[in-house]
Automatic annotation (TrEMBL):
<dbReference type="Pfam" id="PF00583">
    <property type="entry name" value="Acetyltransf_1"/>
</dbReference>
<dbReference type="InterPro" id="IPR036526">
    <property type="entry name" value="C-N_Hydrolase_sf"/>
</dbReference>
<dbReference type="Pfam" id="PF00795">
    <property type="entry name" value="CN_hydrolase"/>
</dbReference>
<protein>
    <submittedName>
        <fullName>GNAT family N-acetyltransferase</fullName>
        <ecNumber>2.3.1.-</ecNumber>
    </submittedName>
</protein>
<dbReference type="InterPro" id="IPR016181">
    <property type="entry name" value="Acyl_CoA_acyltransferase"/>
</dbReference>
<feature type="domain" description="CN hydrolase">
    <location>
        <begin position="235"/>
        <end position="492"/>
    </location>
</feature>
<feature type="domain" description="N-acetyltransferase">
    <location>
        <begin position="12"/>
        <end position="207"/>
    </location>
</feature>
<dbReference type="InterPro" id="IPR003010">
    <property type="entry name" value="C-N_Hydrolase"/>
</dbReference>
<dbReference type="InterPro" id="IPR000182">
    <property type="entry name" value="GNAT_dom"/>
</dbReference>
<keyword id="KW-0808">Transferase</keyword>
<keyword id="KW-0012">Acyltransferase</keyword>
<dbReference type="GO" id="GO:0016746">
    <property type="term" value="F:acyltransferase activity"/>
</dbReference>
Length: 522
């Protein structure tokens, strides 16, 4: 784990670069290119890049430290799609070839702090490029990338063309080109003498393009295959139907969690969702004697490791994690059932369960919280209600009044009737508030863990019931009691349309003169 990420108060975020960032970018670039034959930037070219096209330059920040830099400019396809070299097309690094009318976005630089690799900082910067390209309605993004493993492997493959084909076929991996292909870029050409100072790449540049799916492509002949393509302006959700099974250590638990986070991140998810109290699986590590309340409270000992794991995964995989819930011991000794949300910029939020079930209160001495707050994310404000809380419509309405459009409901139910109470109430919350509701539940068995022996679950993603949505108000569903992941792309813009011009307008038609939700908690 990169040491800077251990500070929970530091955020990882991307913003436009400013002239004040230049010293940090210079320091970053010198460390990145040390020993490669290339040199880091100086003040002049960076000043030119930022002043020439300020909206096209991005920095990734960890707190106040620059840990990534991305430089772009606009240019015509008649130049960018033909063979060229780095010096001529970038104006010797100053971005002086920037054409305000250019129909392509040219990527002249991406560099990431070597000490912070493994946290998808490059992916975040590439995403900013794509979003800028779409915002400007350009044809796409084009650049020539490095091939840093070429020199050491060329003899084995005989030619650069054969080596690139092996990487495209996933028979060989290159840390740069494999990553770029995974980001949706396509090999357009191989350019000799693109940057002769790049000794490891032997001067070659791999000419890559990403085509903007929102605009017609000039000169496209026929359809291109696209698998798993994201629809613009959507939020992709992956909800995990998690199987409870005994584990031998916290590390074994962590590997299971890491697997699911990686799966949803690989499918370009914005959120991965885990169930309520799925951490009670940790009680199987050792046989614990004592009352159910004592064994339940024992999971609180893992709370710090759980938080460190989840925060690291959110940063490393560039995904927001709704990390179910886990027992937490408050400063006054009270045990609460606490949901956690780990954002991909490093922020952490918690949401206590407001209404412990009679079972939780009796067997585990769980106490309810008194706050329900919207959580601001890069996909808009979200809310979390844990299981039984979804059966109280006032809580969801309080969140919607705060601007929430997606409600996450981690749940834990032992048999079908219990599950259906949660399911039907969540569908009602989606209809009456015109929001999306995401359920994530446990399945399987956990012998010898009091009050968690059996599970019944059918995770799903629910929508309002109106013409713009799926026929049954279900965007995604699962088979009951089978470990799996359900995905759906949700469009917040569709909710706005439904709220303002739907068949019914539940939110607009409320009688505020007769009733309201007045929150008296925190």
């Amino acid at each position: 784990m990169c040491p800077p990420f251990s500070d929970p108060d530091q955020r990882l975020f991307v913003r436009n670069a400013t002239l004040a960032d230049i010293p940090g970018i210079i320091d970053l670039s010198r460390r990145v290119y040390e020993g490669t034959g290339m040199y880091g930037y100086t003040k002049g070219p960076l000043t030119g890049q930022i002043n020439t096209f300020p909206e096209g330059q991005f920095v990734a920040m960890l707190g106040d430290t620059v840990v990534g830099y991305c430089a772009t400019f606009r240019i015509g396809g008649e130049v960018a799609l033909l063979r060229h070299d780095w010096t001529s097309i970038t104006g010797n690094g100053y971005a002086s070839r920037h054409d305000p009318e250019g129909d392509w976005l040219y990527g002249m630089e991406v560099c990431v702090d070597p000490e912070c690799r493994g946290y998808r900082i490059g992916e975040r910067l590439y995403n900013e490029r794509k979003q800028l390209c779409q915002h400007l309605n350009l044809q796409g993004v084009v650049f020539a990338g490095r091939l840093p493993t070429l020199r050491q492997r060329l003899k084995k493959f005989g030619s650069i063309e054969a080596y690139v084909e092996a990487i495209k076929a996933k028979e060989q991996r290159d840390p740069v080109l494999s990553f770029q292909l995974h980001q949706g870029f396509e090999v357009h050409d191989i350019i000799p003498h693109y940057l002769d100072a790049d000794h490891d790449s032997m001067g070659y540049g791999i000419h890559l393009v990403w085509r903007n799916p929102k605009v017609p492509q000039n000169g496209d002949a026929g359809k291109r295959k696209r698998y798993g393509q994201r629809i613009p302006d959507t939020v992709r959700i992956g909800t995990v139907q998690y199987q409870q099974r005994p584990v031998a250590s916290f590390d074994e638990f962590a590997e299971i969690v890491r697997y699911f986070v990686d799966v949803v991140a690989t499918y370009k998810g914005d959120f991965v969702v885990f169930p309520e109290l799925f951490t009670l699986q940790l009680l199987s590590i050792e046989a614990r004697k004592g009352s159910p309340a004592e064994t339940f409270a024992a999971v609180a000992h893992y709370a710090d490791r759980y938080r460190e794991l989840m925060r690291d995964l959110a940063l490393r995989h560039n995904i927001n994690i709704v990390a179910g819930s886990t027992p937490v011991r408050e400063d006054d000794g009270t045990i609460r059932n606490m949901a956690h949300v780990f954002l991909r910029d490093g922020q952490v939020f918690t949401q206590p369960k407001i209404h412990p079930t009679p079972n939780e209160a009796y067997w585990w001495n769980v106490r309810g919280g008194n706050r329900v707050n919207a959580i601001d994310t890069d996909c808009g404000p979200i809310g979390v209600l844990i299981c039984y809380d979804a059966e109280f419509p006032e809580l969801a309405r309080h969140l919607v009044d705060q601007g929430v459009s997606i409600l996450f409901v981690p749940f834990c139910t032992d048999e079908r009737q219990s599950y259906l109470r949660v399911r039907y109430c969540c569908q009602a919350r989606a209809v009456e508030n015109q929001i999306y509701v995401v359920l994530s539940g446990n399945v399987g068995n956990l012998p010898n863990v009091p009050n968690m022996e059996i599970q019944y679950g059918q995770s799903c993603i629910l929508t309002p019931c109106d013409f713009p949505f799926a026929r049954d108000g279900i965007a995604a569903d699962t088979e009951a009691n089978v470990e799996t992941v359900a995905f759906a792309d949700l469009r917040p813009e569709t909710l706005i349309t439904a709220r303002n011009s739907g068949t019914v307008k539940n939110l607009q038609d409320r009688r505020h003169d007769l009733y309201s939700v007045n929150w008296r908690g925190e």
